[in-house]
Amino acid sequence: MTYENLDRKLVNALLRDGRASLRSLAEELDVSVTTVSNHISDLEEAGIIDGYTPVVDYGELGYDVTAIIQLKCEGSALAEITDRLQNHERMTSVYEVTGDHDIIAIGKFTDTDHMNEQIKELLVDPDIMESNTSVVLNAVVEDEQFELDV
């Protein structure tokens, strides 16, 4: 095999099985274990691979409520608010966005009372000028990753 697109093929293989051994990856890609190891190290060092983590089904653990929280905030406080949301224990995603709101955060909660309590704690911040919270009724696709074009 040539090394053309090897990094993309390696990323795709890891997306399919993040726990694959170096040996199985080498066999799948028809390269040496050393080549796989070196390329993974390079991808990690470049920040392309930023860790290995299990895919958790929060619903199975009792976090049945997913909320999408849209916030409009005072411009100078944007970084402070996103930092706080990023460090919030129930937020799974935080985005700075364009449009009517400045921030979109997605959180997982055990029930609507827990969600309401947590969101009210966030909204006492005087720099948050407006909020809109939507509760997800059905997660059709969530945390989906896609394979890279090779």
Strand order of the largest sheet: 2-3-1-4
The helix count comes to: 5
CATH architecture of the largest domain: 2-Layer Sandwich
The secondary structure category is alpha+beta
Quaternary organisation: single chain
Cα radius of gyration in angstroms: 20 Å
Major pleated sheet: 4 strands, antiparallel
Q: Could you report the average pLDDT, rounded to the nearest whole number?
A: 93
Number of strands: 4
Write out the CATH superfamily name of the largest domain. Answer: Lrp/AsnC effector binding domain/regulation of amino acid metabolism (RAM) domain
Description:
The chain has 150 residues and is α+β, with helices and mostly antiparallel strands. The chain has two domains: 6-45, Arc Repressor Mutant, subunit A (Orthogonal Bundle); 58-135, Alpha-Beta Plaits (2-Layer Sandwich), CATH 3.30.70.920. It contains five helices and four strands, in the order αααβαββαβ. The chain has helices at 6-16, 22-29, 33-45, 78-86, 112-122, and strands at residues 65-73, 91-96, 103-109, 128-135. It has a four-stranded antiparallel β-sheet with strand order 2-3-1-4. Strand 2 and strand 3 (103-109) form a beta hairpin. Helix 2 packs across helix 3 (33-45). The mean pLDDT is 93.
